[in-house]
Amino acid sequence: MPQLQTYKERPVVLLTNDDGPPSASSPNIFSFCKLLQSRLGWDIKVVIPDTQKSWVGKAYAISDVISASYFYPLEPEGLTGEITNKSRPLKDGETMEWILLSGTPATCTNIALHNLYPGEIDLVVSGPNHGRNSSTAFALSSGTLGAALAGALSVPLPGPSTGIPSLHVEHIPCIALSYGVVTRPVTSRVMELATDAAVDVCERLFGDWGYDEDHEKGRHLVQIYSVNIPLVESDLQKDKRKTAWTNMWRNSYGRLFKATTLTQTEYDPAQFHRQEGALPSQNQPQNNQIPPNVSNSSTAGPGALPTPYTTSPSSPNNEISGDNQLRFHFAPNMKPLLAPSLESLPVGSDAWAFAKGYIGVTPLRAQFAGPIEGGYGFGSEEKGGKVAGSLWE
């Protein structure tokens, strides 16, 4: 098909993420945003969580009042810049105004589409996440995917105030981008190549968006593309890059938590989950009115192999703490999911492509996927040809 339709001559793109503003746990969004602007000429609207929000999926905090602040990132990496409670004109040296919300990634998407920029957005891009989101175990937990899913479910959207009909009555195109850490430290050259590849993929998809054949809705635009880019320098070189269409590997995770004697006040996630080669956490944007990002734990998401503790917070033999209250902290062992053998991975899956060093592009629907064949009827009826709509007997 021709490129996606847009309201204006220049595409207006909502950029969100789950890692928050530029910091140790969010090293990708600033350079990616700049390249989208400079290379593609897109008009980028950034609406992101004000702190790290990994592993929250497509959650909405319905009991919270969501507050907005305004961040004016400065060159060269967006690690500094003023944060204000009210929007203001740009000052010398500032090129963009970003909106930070005290909500989840999904909340950022919905508020941006319906409250902040109604009738303006042509495409939603979530990421780039600092960590892969290949396979169901990661994707169903991912705030990056959650923000994209929220976009696909946030329709119908209003048209522009000028009275032009809405382009997004049944869908809005969404892309979820994830960078998968393979080795450390992650060099600046690898990040540069990954960002270059990510922008190329976005440009290619925007210019030739695919269709989904749905027995309920018929032929319609793909709702979401999940893109996973392995951070391997040799595979990301321009003349060696390979990109594959993929489906999602169906896997699972085991225990995610360990017992701890520490209270929430005593527990410092950065001490136990700091990732080698991460940006200095003290460089994150902050001011006196808005508390700094208290979580700079890159490994809180599915981005890396577990980092050994220097001082273990876990209780020996899972004993409870001194005040007799049982407590747990997030301490996943992701190595089985991050380093499976290539032979164990289904050919064509996103995890297979990642293991091969390919960029994987997985088309998704915003729905719980049912069985492809079978699954309807009891075990004793498995040969009875049951289909959706069959009544229990």
What features would you describe in this structure?
- The protein is of the alpha/beta class and 393 residues long.
- It has a domain at 12-253 and 339-364: Survival protein SurE-like phosphatase/nucleotidase (Stationary-phase Survival Protein Sure Homolog, Chain: A), CATH 3.40.1210.10.
- The chain is built from nine helices and 14 strands.
- It has helices at 29-40, 105-116, 136-139, 143-153, 188-207, 233-236, 269-273, 335-338, 350-356, and strands at residues 12-16, 43-49, 68-73, 81-84, 98-101, 123-130, 174-181, 211-214, 218-221, 224-231, 243-245, 257-259, 328-330, 359-364.
- Strand 1 (12-16), helix 1 (29-40) and strand 2 form a beta-alpha-beta unit.
CATH-defined superfamily of the domain at 12-253 and 339-364: Survival protein SurE-like phosphatase/nucleotidase
**What best-fitting shape do the alpha-carbon axes yield?**
globular
Number of strands: 14
Structural class: alpha/beta
- Architecture of the domain at 12-253 and 339-364, CATH level 2? 3-Layer(aba) Sandwich
Q: What Rg do the Cα atoms give? A: 22 Å
Briefly note the CATH topology name of the domain at 12-253 and 339-364: Stationary-phase Survival Protein Sure Homolog, Chain: A
Report the uncertain regions.
272-312, 314-321
- Binned, the helix content reads 10-25%
Residue fraction in strands: 15-25%
Please list the strands of the largest sheet in the order they lie side by side. Answer: 4-3-5-2-1-6-7-10-14-11
Taking the sheet with the most strands, its summary is: 10 strands, mixed
Assign the CATH class of the domain at 12-253 and 339-364. Alpha Beta
Instruction: Tell me the number of helical segments per DSSP (H or I, 4 or more residues long).
Output: 9
Query: What is the distance, rounded to the nearest whole angstrom, between the alpha carbons of the first and last residues?
Result: 46 Å
Mean pLDDT: 85
Organism: Kwoniella pini CBS 10737
GO molecular function: hydrolase activity
Protein name: 5'/3'-nucleotidase SurE
Domain Survival protein SurE-like phosphatase/nucleotidase: 13-254
